[in-house]
Amino acid sequence: MTRTATGDRPQLEAHLRERRSQKRKLLVPFVTAGVSADWLDLVVALVEAGADAIEIGLPFSDPMLEGVTIQQASQRALERGMTTTRALHAIAELELDVPLIAMTYSNLIKRHGYEDFCRRLSESGVSGLIPVDTPLDEAGPLIKAARTNHIETVLVAAPSTPDDRLKQIAEVGSGFVYASTVMGTTGERTSLGQQAADLAGRVRACTDRPVLLGFGISGPETAVEAARHADGVVMGAALMRRVLEGQTVDEVTGLARQVREALEAV
Amino acid sequence: MAEPTADGRFGAFGGCYVPEALIPACRTLEQEFRTAWADPAFRGELARTLKLYAGRPTPVTPATRLSAELGVNLLLKREDLAHTGSHKINNVLGQGLLARRMGRTRLLAETGAGQHGVATATVGALLGLDVTVFMGAKDVERQELNVFRMELLGATVVPVTTGGQTLADATSEAFRHWVGQSETAHYCIGSTMGPHPYPWMVREFQRVIGEEARGQCAELLPAGVPDVVVACVGGGSNAAGTFAGFVDTSAQLVGVEAAGGAAIGSGSPGILHGFDSYLLQDDDGQVLEAHSVSAGLDYPGVGPEHSHLADSGRARYVSATDDEVLHALRKLAQTEGILAALESCHALAWVLRAAGTSELPSGSTVLLTLSGRGDKDAAQVRELLK
Ligand SMILES: Cc1ncc(COP(=O)(O)O)c(C=O)c1O
């Protein structure tokens, strides 16, 4: 099924707000498109395990913000022949009741053209876009193209972001505010620092958009710690490491299930 | 060459495409550089250090025998005679003094051939700053001697094992580390690339090449200004510094890329390492690996100001093949007694090819920036000439 811009594609922010209003902490797992032969099965299984949205990483050759795990996942996906076009064709076949968010780097978006890229996301049933190396100041033309195509552009906030800028990020971006737990790259961590709590608090003080903490969410403990301060979490490297190690879809999904359960108690 | 726009653009190119976490660091750097560059005390200290430590001004040498053979009047701006053996020291002294002024205690750097790494290790030792250099694992192997030099100078060299394991990967890795340490470490980028303000700042620190050469040409040439100014282009720092001294003259500006890394010659606009510029990439936007005998030009992108100079027509960009470069290296060695870096030999290769043609008619005067000395390449050249 190929969905259209006005089709049954769930709106990202509306969906997250609705789930949040049910007093539910949000879980957004991340999957690198093409990381394994059965990556699409993994996406479906993660939704069944209780994901509230899925972040799909469109692999880029030079991922400047990724730690070792997601670098390797991207490299593996590219070696397996994944491209933006293939990933979007594959995604378009999925029938999910949660929104999909594409995460990628500016060069892929620019190469396809802002307008074209966003239109193709939309036609593939994607609801949101996280352009990780396009900061607020450079995001104008992209956000405009995204809006025309009903794509919500999620911007990242970092511990180093001053308050006045946080406010702009929350206003100009949509979907949710992606708050990075650390000054650093993606990757698993054993605990989250005070920085994460502080940032989530500062973001919440300036917006009522959903706030998700990401980077370093490795399992139930870090997820619970993060969810105490935010509306939910994004979990990536912990899942991708398991895929790279050769775990089955079931085994990988097991971690998401544990996190989901742990979040019920927050 | 003028200041970029407030958002760091030279025409359509440049900008600041970095993860949000690095935005404050880039902003602070821009302000600090702007203030320092307007401060006579900072300028004075830099000028003094360039003179007493790095050995500036470097001479302009008429290449007499080679000129006679080619039928053009060739002048060489001798950056090979600067301390550490290349122009890289000009930029690193500037950034090192700035980092110290900003209270930073560490320098991070990427390096390909190791010239920028050695320059950074050198300045770190001079100023008492810790230095970590990221270098592709392949380059660590190819440039063993430079790795040892950096370590002797007290720097830590980190081999990068991701991707193609060369300069582009080392640069990505340096950025990753900078994200986590931007409050204590200054990322000392080695060329006119990276997010704003780097391309502008590095060009300003390299401007000394062009300004000296302008004065030296005025003394050596009856016309005062050469007909053609030529330099090799990797990220583009020695070329940008050279062009800055001549952009307001009638001189034709020529940049020479490596044929296997010709971002302007065979790339298309794209975004990598924080800036928008010509880039070698496939249809999907995946970055392609560059391939050149010279590790210093083995980079898939080019500084944004060069993309602008190319599009606006003020400078022209050509390329030279590995074979032409090796030939040029021998030619210069045997006619002038100068063993030049493989990078610099790209500029010379174009002069050898163009001399006597409509591109460079007989009787033309040419200023060529000899960006570095060739000692580092001796072992590799021996292998290649076997
Ligand atoms: C001697 C020499 N020339 C030129 C370059 C290329 O750099 P750029 O284009 O920034 O001058 C290098 C880089 O390593 C170098 O070592």
From TrEMBL, chain A:
Among the GO molecular function terms of this UniProt record, one is:
tryptophan synthase activity
The cross-references to NCBIfam families, in alphabetical order and at most eight, read: trpA
Q: Which UniProt keywords apply?
A: Amino-acid biosynthesis, Aromatic amino acid biosynthesis, Lyase, Tryptophan biosynthesis
Enzyme Commission number? 4.2.1.20
Which pathway is this protein assigned to? Amino-acid biosynthesis; L-tryptophan biosynthesis; L-tryptophan from chorismate: step 5/5
Q: Oligomeric state and partners?
A: Tetramer of two alpha and two beta chains.
Active-site residues are: 55 (proton acceptor), 66 (proton acceptor)
Function, as annotated, reads: The alpha subunit is responsible for the aldol cleavage of indoleglycerol phosphate to indole and glyceraldehyde 3-phosphate.
Q: What is this protein called?
A: Tryptophan synthase alpha chain
| Catalytic function, reaction form | (1S,2R)-1-C-(indol-3-yl)glycerol 3-phosphate + L-serine = D-glyceraldehyde 3-phosphate + L-tryptophan + H2O
UniProt entry tagged with the keyword Signal: no
Q: Which family does it belong to?
A: Belongs to the TrpA family.
Gene Ontology CC, one term: cytosol
PROSITE patterns cross-referenced by the UniProt entry: TRP_SYNTHASE_ALPHA
- Extract the Pfam families matched here: Trp_syntA
Q: Which InterPro entries match?
A: Aldolase_TIM, RibuloseP-bd_barrel, Trp_synthase_alpha_AS, Trp_synthase_suA
Leading EC class: lyase
